[in-house]
Amino acid sequence: MTTARLPLFPLNSVLFPGLVLPLNVFEQRYRALMRDLSALPEEEPRRFGVVAIRDGSEVAPTAPGLPEGARPEPGPASGFGPDPLKAFHTVGCVAEAATIRERTGGTYEVLATGTTRFRLLSVDASGPYLTGEVEDIAEEQGEGAGALASGVVRAFRAYQKRLAGATERTLAGQTDLPGEPSVLSYLVAAAAMLDVPAKQRLLETPDTATRLARELKILRAETAVIGKLPSLPATDLIRQPTNPN
């Protein structure tokens, strides 16, 4: 399988293909990345790789309390230890920036969309920001994806209703779920109230059918748990917060 080199943008969250990723970019290493992406010709895609952090800090340490001149200069791998590859989950998602807007002060407001999965093979910290050698991961349908998708739609609707009841919210204005199994599997993975390791496992699932089967099991279990809880904090199942970086 052929490999490619991508700029890396590590996050404390998981990006899935087809999902929108808003970013508030303020660190120097990621400002440099956005400057380079902005300088690309119009016809070239502005692509970077999003990987979930396994062990490390999304924002570089600033050593509070030290005098300004004594503070460590944050480099491309700051916060990720001596071997960044070990700090990241090795399956990530390619993001393509639709808009990169520079604000006063040099920070950036970015809106990107996940496109395809990749496997991270190595990390290079020699430049102003991390880059990685990656190989694409093809999305296989697997056996019975269509039938499983129908079950996941029903289970997800029941999950939404139970969650809305627990948070005293309504489902008015709810959007239709996609019929294409792989698109549905990624939307449900992103929207369900799961921690990063659980979402990462869904991203790494080898095919759509297996992902849908796992989601069906998760949704049924979570729906049963929510039904036994007196209340839950309000959560929007579709809208994602802006990642501060």
From TrEMBL:
Residue ranges constituting the Lon N-terminal domain according to the UniProt record: 3-223
Entry annotated with the keyword Transferase: no
Organism lineage string: Bacteria, Bacillati, Actinomycetota, Actinomycetes, Streptosporangiales
Stretches the record annotates as Disordered: 59-78
Protein name: ATP-dependent protease
Gene3D superfamilies, alphabetized: 1.20.58.1480, LON domain-like (2.30.130.40)
The organism's place on the tree of life at top rank: Bacteria
SUPFAM superfamilies per the UniProt record, alphabetical: PUA domain-like
Record GO biological process: proteolysis
GO molecular function, one term: peptidase activity
